[in-house]
Amino acid sequence: MDLITNVTEFEAIAKEKLPKMIYDYYASGAEDQWTLKENRNAFSRILFRPRILRDVSKIDLTTNVLGFNISMPIMIAPTAMQKMAHLEGEYATARAASAAGTIMTLSSWATSSVEEVASTGPGIRFFQLYVVKDRNVVTQLVRRAESAGFKAIALTVDTPMLGRREADIKNRFTMPPHLVLKNFEGLDLGKLDKTDDSGLASYVSGQVDRSLNWKDVKWLQTITSLPILVKGVLTSEDTKLAIQAGAAGIIVSNHGARQLDYVPATITALDEVVKAAEGKIPVFLDGGVRRGTDVFKALALGASGVFIGRPVVFSLAADGENGVRKVLQILRDEFELTMALCGCRSLKEITRNHVVTEWDSPRVAPRL
């Protein structure tokens, strides 16, 4: 563990430690996994235009998300069933996020409940919501999250059905028998059982509401005063509809490339969404963030912050709470270094002029 120098190195350790079925569940994407690779590759095609001689002796990484001050624009995305990675699961992740002064998003399909995560101590936490067919259950879940002190709802909108994750089908993926989806415990929502397919895909097709639409985003605002982040937006059209529906923010996400394959990388889609949002609501990004340079690129393209998913479960598998702390620290250090080397002292100094993308028109040098 002492020799780990970057976020990606945690994955090999996780692969070694975890049973194949569990590693594959966390690591894989949909179908050909083109988008899974592209989420990373697209970052590598964005280059920097660093500015020099800027006095970067003091660098401020702090930011504000939905009115909450956090230490850096790097937050934790919702990932399901974290106790499959480590026995402390979401408890460890919550403590690591709190220690780093940042936000954790708890998955609906967590192996620890909203109340249990709240019991780990202070921290700013969001709750990711899947809308199930029984709206009473949805209302109950949202209200429990609110009572437990969660500060926002991240509504996942890209999963009317589960993407085709072939590793899970081959492995007949199911949750280990000693674990339960804690937020649904005691509710009559069926079980995540072994099937001749992916157990999760079968569970989702039985429970998740495929009729979910923009009216439901408005309905959610009638049952809670918490801000709603719409997670899973990739187009300008849906950005505008999200704003009309009263969303407090947007998370540009392709679900870690686990839903529809051959959608663009999130860093590619970000530009379109940011332009359509016109600064009316904040836009965040998840998918493929593995370096501090990636964080900077997302902010330069207009994101207000990023969320990390797989690095959390892999570091959790590798070393529990300390692993997650280390991932957050590495990303923070790399991001601070990138800011210094690009001549930025605060997040507001990071601009579109600091990066060049494939879709930029050729630059004409200013006449001196």
UniProtKB/TrEMBL annotation:
It is an enzyme of class 1 (oxidoreductase). It catalyses: glycolate + O2 = glyoxylate + H2O2. It comes from the Eukaryota. Belongs to the FMN-dependent alpha-hydroxy acid dehydrogenase family. Pathway: Photosynthesis; photorespiration; glycine from 2-phosphoglycolate: step 2/3. Residues 1-360 form the FMN hydroxy acid dehydrogenase domain. Glyoxylate binds at residues 25, 165, 255. One of its GO terms (biological process) is hydrogen peroxide biosynthetic process. This is (S)-2-hydroxy-acid oxidase. Keywords: Flavoprotein, FMN, Glycolate pathway, Oxidoreductase, Peroxisome, Photorespiration. The gene is LOC101506877. It comes from Cicer arietinum (Chickpea). FMN binds at residues 78-80, 107, 128, 130, 156, 231, 253, 258, 286-290, 309-310. It is found in: Peroxisome.
